[in-house]
Automatic annotation (TrEMBL):
<keyword id="KW-1133">Transmembrane helix</keyword>
<feature type="transmembrane region" description="Helical">
    <location>
        <begin position="58"/>
        <end position="78"/>
    </location>
</feature>
<feature type="transmembrane region" description="Helical">
    <location>
        <begin position="343"/>
        <end position="362"/>
    </location>
</feature>
<keyword id="KW-1003">Cell membrane</keyword>
<feature type="compositionally biased region" description="Basic and acidic residues">
    <location>
        <begin position="417"/>
        <end position="426"/>
    </location>
</feature>
<dbReference type="Pfam" id="PF07690">
    <property type="entry name" value="MFS_1"/>
</dbReference>
<dbReference type="InterPro" id="IPR036259">
    <property type="entry name" value="MFS_trans_sf"/>
</dbReference>
<feature type="transmembrane region" description="Helical">
    <location>
        <begin position="90"/>
        <end position="113"/>
    </location>
</feature>
<feature type="transmembrane region" description="Helical">
    <location>
        <begin position="119"/>
        <end position="140"/>
    </location>
</feature>
<feature type="domain" description="Major facilitator superfamily (MFS) profile">
    <location>
        <begin position="24"/>
        <end position="398"/>
    </location>
</feature>
<dbReference type="InterPro" id="IPR050189">
    <property type="entry name" value="MFS_Efflux_Transporters"/>
</dbReference>
<keyword id="KW-0472">Membrane</keyword>
<feature type="transmembrane region" description="Helical">
    <location>
        <begin position="152"/>
        <end position="174"/>
    </location>
</feature>
<dbReference type="InterPro" id="IPR011701">
    <property type="entry name" value="MFS"/>
</dbReference>
<feature type="transmembrane region" description="Helical">
    <location>
        <begin position="222"/>
        <end position="243"/>
    </location>
</feature>
<protein>
    <submittedName>
        <fullName>MFS transporter</fullName>
    </submittedName>
</protein>
<feature type="transmembrane region" description="Helical">
    <location>
        <begin position="255"/>
        <end position="275"/>
    </location>
</feature>
């Protein structure tokens, strides 16, 4: 916890009792889970929604593009606008907004109405994620902040593991409208828990617009981290947004798609935990390795006509690679960022969601032009730029090795120059 945070707590920010803090952390994690589930829900329902509302799979992918773009803008805007408001009030409003949006999707009879509701989802996701990025120090003692932060952001991974696959399963059993309605009811339930269990969290310090570019000027670690994160996440979502049409085109039964997506989500979580320690010690190598695994999985899936078993194996490989990406780059960006770290957190959320939207848009273009497997090739090409850039940067940082002098040439004192060059090389 920073000095500013400690001072704020002493100045009346208040310390939540341990039991209340744990409940509040759990509620915030559930809130993030419900919002990220809402953002990712269309990934498993594109075919059904597109068929019922008369749009192509590529156009249906706008259900992912629109909230991603809006979240990218709303993350810094809500962070600044909410500076003097109680954080519980801000989070409650955003949860209520996403609940309304999901319920509107459930009854919409035109695709334009669905897109308008997805606009509201984007506002909620961007604002909620940015606000909760720095809320853990307000809820638990300093020694528990890292664990509480990890618990809160576990909601993001849980949305991939449980939320989106569960929504796909519900959509298969009872229709996509029921899946959106269930997401709306979930958000309302979490809203009730937040109002009942989370204490007031008064405004402590507001982030100014001037702090946002200041975070980028803090060092090359922030700028390059955000750029490489954008490439990796864009590549992933270029392919992942259309994984359902890919699987169906490869002959995977409709009933098996939800199970395979659940398997993918579990692999993502495993990749996240596996990358935790290496990302802290060797972030560049971890990022390069994770994106290499991601690229290999996409290329293999694009190049082979995989059945259910082979697709499951490749989805595990894909999940292991992608699961390591967010935690690796988040650690790198936040460690390199100047104070206030909330500004860098908002930029991270903005870059992440912009990449989700851009990936869905590029994938939609590829699908409509070359078919579902075109999205896999496009995603692999984008993600491959990350390890290539990291390798090139590592080579550029290596000190130059002096060229050996001609044989017999002597340096000062009569020592052969070739021998000096050999020692320098070692």
């Amino acid at each position: 916890m920073t000095t500013d945070t400690q001072a704020a707590d002493r100045d009346g920010g208040g310390r939540v009792p341990p039991a209340g803090g744990r409940l509040a952390v759990a509620t915030v994690a559930l809130g993030l889970f419900s919002l990220m589930t809402s953002e990712l829900l269309p990934v498993g329902l594109l075919t059904s929604v597109g068929h019922d509302l008369g749009v192509s799979p590529g156009i249906a992918g706008l259900m992912v593009t629109v909230p991603g773009l809006v979240a990218a803008v709303s993350a810094p805007l809500v962070t600044v606008a909410a500076g003097r408001l109680d954080r519980r009030t801000v989070l409650a409003v955003l949860l209520g907004l996403v609940a309304v949006a999901n319920l509107v999707c459930a009854v919409a009879d035109h695709f334009a109405v669905v897109l308008a509701a997805r606009f509201l989802v984007g506002i909620s996701v961007g604002g909620f994620w940015a606000v909760v990025g720095g809320i853990a120090p307000r809820l638990v003692p300093p020694e528990r902040v890292p664990r509480a932060t990890a618990a809160i952001f576990a909601g993001v991974g849980a949305a991939s593991v449980l939320g989106m696959p569960a929504g796909t399963f519900v959509g298969h059993l009872a229709g996509w409208r029921t899946a959106f309605a269930a997401a709306g009811v979930l958000s309302l339930a979490v809203l009730g828990c937040l109002l009942a269990l989370m204490p007031a969290v008064p405004a402590r310090r507001r982030v100014r617009f001037a702090d946002l570019p200041g975070a980028l000027r803090g060092g090359t670690g922030v700028r390059t981290g955000i750029a490489l994160l954008a490439l990796a996440v864009t590549g992933h979502f270029t392919a992942y947004t259309f994984v359902r049409p890919v699987l169906r085109g490869d002959g995977v039964p409709e009933a098996a798609v939800g199970a395979l997506l659940l398997l993918f989500g579990a692999a993502c979580v495993a990749g996240t935990f596996a990358a935790g320690a290496p990302a802290a010690k060797r972030p560049r190598r971890t990022a390069a390795g994770a994106c290499t695994v991601l690229v290999c999985a996409l290329v293999l899936m694009a190049a082979t006509d995989a059945g259910a078993l082979a697709a499951g194996a490749l989805l595990v490989l894909w999940g292991l690679g992608y699961g390591a990406v967010p935690v690796t780059f988040q650690n790198r960006i936040l460690r390199a960022a100047p104070e206030p770290r909330e500004a860098a957190s908002a930029l991270y959320v903005s870059a992440f969601n912009t990449s989700v939207a851009l990936g869905a848009l590029l994938g939609g273009r590829a699908v409509d032009t070359t078919g579902p497997h075109g999205a896999l090739w496009a995603g692999a090409a984008l993600a491959a730029l990350v390890p290539l850039s990291l390798v090139a940067a590592a080579r550029a940082r290596r000190p130059a090795v002096p060229s050996p002098a001609p044989a017999g040439a002597a340096g000062p004192g009569g020592a052969p120059r070739a021998r000096e060059g050999s020692r320098a090389a070692r």
